[in-house]
Amino acid sequence: MALMITDECINCDVCEPECPNGAIYQGEEIYEIDPNKCTECVGHFDEPQCQQVCPVDCIPLDPKREETKDQLMAKFLKLTGKA
């Protein structure tokens, strides 16, 4: 699954630079995650880095974007040009 940022986000800006895929960006009110770029850090790290640094724990899995680890790895390979 891709991750999402909930409206509990406090715009602290610690998650954006941690995303190796550049999936996190400043939205109109809070940070948002582009689900087409989010691999949950599969291919880069063992755990999603944004979740690790978020001080308010507002980055859950997006239930509307179910993806297997294989699908996330395929997305990683496509995004990095390693496919």
UniProtKB/TrEMBL annotation:
The 4Fe-4S ferredoxin-type domain is annotated at: 1-29, 31-64
Superkingdom of the organism of origin: Bacteria
One cellular component (GO) term of this entry: cytoplasm
The protein depicted here goes by the name 4Fe-4S ferredoxin iron-sulfur binding domain-containing protein
Q: Which Pfam families match?
A: Fer4_7 (PF12838)
What InterPro entries does the entry give?
Answer: 4Fe4S_Fe-S-bd (IPR017896), 4Fe4S_Fe_S_CS (IPR017900), PSI_iron-sulfur_center (IPR050157), YfhL-like (IPR047927)
KW Disulfide bond (keyword) present: no
Q: Which UniProt keywords apply?
A: 4Fe-4S, Electron transport, Iron, Iron-sulfur, Metal-binding, Repeat, Transport
A molecular function GO annotation = 4 iron, 4 sulfur cluster binding
